[in-house]
Design goal:
Structural class: alpha+beta
CATH superfamily of the domain at 2-71 and 106-188 and 285-357: FAD/NAD(P)-binding domain
CATH topology of the domain at 2-71 and 106-188 and 285-357: FAD/NAD(P)-binding domain
Distance between the termini: 56 Å
Number of helices: 14
CATH class of the domain at 2-71 and 106-188 and 285-357: Alpha Beta
Oligomer: single chain
């Protein structure tokens, strides 16, 4: 038995575990990721990398690899509600293909379709496999124990059956919804909504896209008496996923029959897998147990409707990552790591409820068989349904920048000011309000304001300079990394709303003001979690 030492041990090599390792590597922290499988993804459950996650991929230097992973830039991104694929189309939400898309004003990195079987190899190549990289495949966690000084994990290499003990200062559980780590820590994850059972049928239909032509869609929502679930193009080539509800008696549906009910045109297909899965809506009671942290599905499970699950987990990883780095490097305060749960648990609940709203819009309802016909009555029902979809804003599930960007951290390490902006996804716009993600603007060709953030704090200065040297000296005395940027651009200044804006390593605003505070020490101590403050304390003057 060998002893291995590292700063952070990550359990689980799914998308969130990989993101956790990427952020720690970016922050210069030694880490080991253990994954029980060989890393190959045969049943890709993740489809789209959200825009905020793509911004993080940008900071890690792999955004272009994600975009080049395999999705055809000319493939349609439309979402269609149909009686069947090849049958009557009820409603269509049009989205331009990536080739025709205009870059939005609020981000340099819009979302990208990248199924998990493409996503994982990008990160695996970036991180590398042991002994030259951070990932140890076919490595199983057997047991662990923690003290006030660290965590000791017993692991078995499944290839050699060698048993090792990995000693880490901290451990991060990215081991999924049934997290063994979380359960052993005695942390419950109560359900917030009823658990539902679904089937996931993955199949190949290589001719379907060509046969559908201009009527092809990226996602079909089936609206017929038999199936009322989505069918999605996974890779934009031949692979599709059909989600099913089991029969009324709980029996698993026959995959072949279900596909034929979903697709009314004659097209060859091959079933790849037919797996049941439980959709739960859970948030852990705590996101931390001593030196152990829960991230991604180990901390929260969301409905896949809207694609917020993995992306919420990646947000967890970045929030925790810079705080672990600050702590390990010695400039993070004693209370900094406590802010991880305070900030991210609230966001998990928020995103869970938004995902559940999307799910409820697609839940099974009685569909009259006449909707399938060419009759006047059938056409009328389809038209009324289309009007209802337009009114209900069904497009929101697939175009939700407010969900991805509009959240705001409320925590002891954030210095709020004035009236906060509304967290209404339909009303979201960029703001420098403390706790929000700092606004994106182009500084020059291909360089965003977001590219300034990542390592240490950043003080954005717009016109004013008084007190900056003192501010920098205070940070230097406390060993807090600080970069100062003077921005001489009226439009960007207007976007940032104040003369001074202090931005954290994760790109969220810690403080802002038209003048630097008199109590600079207090502001820095608050921002790095060096004082035991609470929400609602008096603002720093």
């Amino acid at each position: 038995m060998n002893d291995i030492k590292t700063d952070v041990l990550i359990i689980g090599g799914g998308p969130v575990g990989l993101a956790m390792a990427a952020e720690l590597r970016y922050q210069g922290i030694d880490c080991i990721l253990i994954e029980q499988t060989d890393g190959e993804v045969t049943d890709p459950k993740v489809s789209t990398v959200g825009p905020r996650s793509m911004e993080f991929c940008r900071r890690w230097g792999i955004a272009q690899q994600i975009r080049d992973a395999g999705w055809d830039v000319n493939h349609t991104l439309d979402v269609a509600w149909v009686t069947s694929v090849g049958g009557h189309e009820i409603y269509r939400a049009h989205f331009p293909s990536y080739a025709k898309r205009v870059l939005p004003e609020y981000t340099p990195e819009p979302e990208q379709v990248c199924p998990q079987n493409w996503f994982a190899p990008v990160f695996q190549n970036f991180l590398g496999e042991y002994p030259n990289g951070q990932i140890r495949f076919l490595c199983q966690l057997d047991d662990f124990e923690q003290t006030d000084k660290g965590v000791a994990a017993t692991v078995t290499c499944l290839k050699t059956l060698t048993v090792n003990v990995i000693h880490a200062q901290y451990m991060v559980a990215c081991d999924g919804a049934r997290s063994m780590v979380r359960k052993k820590c005695g942390v419950d994850a109560p359900k917030l909504h009823d658990t539902q059972v679904f089937q996931s049928v993955v199949f190949k239909a290589p001719e379907l896209a060509t046969q559908m032509g201009e009527h092809h869609a990226m996602v079909y929502f089936l609206v017929n008496p038999i199936i009322q679930e989505p069918l999605r193009a996974v890779d934009g080539k031949s692979l599709y996923r059909l989600i099913l509800k089991p029969k009324e008696n709980g029996e698993v549906r026959d995959a072949t029959e279900a596909i034929r009910a979903a697709i009314s045109i004659d097209t060859p297909f091959e079933i790849v897998s037919n797996q049941p899965w439980r959709l739960s809506h859970r948030v852990a009671e705590r996101f931390r147990d001593g030196r152990i942290f829960f991230v991604g599905d180990s901390a929260h499970t969301l409905s896949p409707s809207g694609g917020f699950g993995m992306n919420t987990g990646i947000g967890d990883a970045v929030d925790l990552g810079w705080k672990l780095a600050a702590t390990l490097k010695g400039w993070g305060g004693a209370n900094l790591l406590d802010s991880y749960e305070i900030e991210r648990r609230a966001i998990a609940v928020r995103n869970l409820e938004e995902a559940n709203k999307n799910l409820q819009r697609t839940q099974k309802r009685a569909i009259p068989p006449v909707i399938m016909t060419d009759s006047h009555e059938g056409a009328q029902i389809r038209a009324e349904m289309a009007q209802g979809m337009e009114r209900s804003g069904v497009k929101r599930e697939f175009e939700a920048p407010g969900v991805h960007f509009g959240f705001r951290y409320e925590s002891p390490i954030i210095q709020s000011d004035g009236t906060p902006p509304s967290d209404n996804p339909f009303e979201w716009q960029q703001t420098s309000y403390p706790g929000c993600r700092a606004p994106h603007a182009w500084l020059e060709a291909r360089k965003s304001t977001l590219d300034l953030f990542g390592h240490g704090f950043v003080l954005m200065c717009f016109g004013a300079m008084q007190g900056v040297e003192t501010f920098a000296q205070v940070c230097q005395d406390k060993n807090v990394p600080l970069n100062i940027h003077y921005i001489n651009d009226a439009k960007i200044a207007q976007l940032y709303e104040r003369n001074f804006v202090l931005v954290r390593p994760d790109g969220h605003v810690a403080w802002r003001g038209d003048a630097l505070p008199n109590e600079i020490n207090a502001l820095i101590d608050r921002s790095i979690g060096a004082i035991n403050c609470s929400i609602g304390v008096s603002p720093v003057q």
